[in-house]
Amino acid sequence: MKKYVCDPCGYEYDPEIGDPDNGIEAGTAFEDLPEDWVCPICGAPKSDFVPA
């Protein structure tokens, strides 16, 4: 699965890790994240992420 990076702050979403602090389980592809999911560091929307 592909990693994605938050363009504004550089946070990397790794699907192998997920975002457990925000209820996203390991193994969740970026494309499968809820539309209202935001960067856990800066709050940017999914649309601000780019493929790593």
Percentage of β-strand residues: 15-25%
How many DSSP-defined strands?
3
Mean pLDDT: 97
The count of helical stretches stands at 0
Structural class: mainly beta
Shape: globular
Strand order of the largest sheet: 2-1-3
Considering DSSP H and I runs of 4 or more, what fraction of the residues is helical? under 10%
Unreliable stretches: none
SSE series: EEE
Query: From the alpha-carbon coordinates, what is the Rg to the nearest angstrom?
Result: 10 Å
Termini separation comes to: 11 Å
Q: Give a short account of the largest sheet.
A: 3 strands, antiparallel
Descriptive report:
The protein starts with a strand and ends with a strand. It is mainly β. The chain has strands at 4-6, 12-13, 49-51.
Annotate the secondary structure layout.
Layout: E1 4-6, E2 12-13, E3 49-51
Antiparallel strand pairs: 1-2, 1-3
Quickly list its features.
globular, mainly beta, 0% helix, 52 residues, 3-stranded antiparallel sheet, 3 strands, single chain
Short description:
By secondary structure, the protein is mainly β.
